[in-house]
Every structure is written in C-alpha cells, then in structure tokens.
Amino acid sequence: MDPELEELPTDYLRGLDFRISKGSKGGFADYNGSKWARKESALTEAEQAAIDAHGLFDLSTSLPKKPTDVELKVIKEMFEASVDGQPYDTERWGQYFRPAGVQAPAGGSTAPAVDEATPAPVAKPALKVAAPVSDFDDEDDTPVATAPVAKPAGGGQKAEDILAMIRARQAK
User: Nearest CA to 42 among 72, 7, 93?
Assistant: First the structure.
C-alpha cells in the first residue's frame, strides 16, 4: 500500500478510481502504467444502485479448481519425466491431464493410484562433460579454472542446455 493513502482505495465514499493504461512491451500487452487516481472519488448514485441491485462480482469464482494431493503428485511425476526426456504417457497420466484432442485411456473412469514408493523407471539421456572453462578473477584479471559443465549430447540448443542444468542439479 501507498503510505500517502489515508483510506482504502476501494472505500465507497473516499475511494480512488483505478486508471488502466494498456501499452505494449515485446509484442505483448503491458499494464505496468496502470495506477490509482490521486483524487478521491465517491461512487455515484447510479453505481451504488447497481451494487445494491446486483451485488459485487466475486473474482474468486473465476479461479480454476485447486489440484488435489494426488493431482499434485501426478504433476510432479509428469514434470520429472519431461525433464528426463520421456514423452507424455496417456496410460499413466491420461486420467488426470490430457492434451487437447487426446482421449482418456480405456479401462473405466477409476483413476489409477499414484504410488510414491515405487516410481516409474526413468531413462537418463546421455550427457557429455565439456572441458573446464576459464574465467577471470575480478581483482587481478588472472584466469581461474571452473568446474566442468554438463552439456547435452549432440547440440547446443538452448532448451537442451536448460534441461541439462536441471538434470545436473537433480543428480547432486
């Protein structure tokens, strides 16, 4: 909150208008220029009558449902499998989450239980270790050897580099 505001901006009598300013940044909509008006503005009689007649809109009704504990475990398992390079498996995750156009696996509507004690086998992709990289010490500009960095085999694609870093952290 702004310490200069004496009342809540949403107060009916001494509240403030919110001015939405839409701009563009990097080809996407940007609302960073939006701000509270600096002058108090009471609700008009028509606005107050509309609130009395229809009530206020509850934005929490537009939120998606919260995932259950089982769904959170499935999300984690799907994430770890994707980091390890495994494709989406309809039989494992289809009862919970499916890409658009993918049918639920046959076998009933009962979802299989997710068991943390017996994780699915994970195939580790091949990583090759790059040669140590030299960096410069800030004080006297002398080269300093750093630890080897794991890089994905067969390319320097940016997404593959990120996945290699995540895998390296998980291995520690």
Answer: 7
Q: For residue 79, how far is the Cα from the chain centroid?
A: 12
DSSP letter string, 56-115: ---GGGGSPPPPPHHHHHHHHHHHHHHHTTPPP-HHHHTTT---TTPPPPSS-SPPPPP-
Q: Is 23 helix (H, G, I), strand (E, B) or coil?
A: strand
Domain ranges of the chain: 16-62, 65-120, 124-172
Residue 59 phi/psi, 5-degree rounding, is -65, -25
Helix axis angle, 69-83 relative to 158-171, nearest 10°? 120
DSSP class of residue 119 equals: P
In this predicted model, what pLDDT tens digit does every residue of 62-108 receive, in sequence order? 999 899 999 999 999 999 999 999 998 888 888 888 888 888 777 64
Tell me if 97 sits within 8 A of 78, measured CB to CB. Answer: yes
Two structure tokens written together for 117:
């004690």
41 has which bridge partners?
none
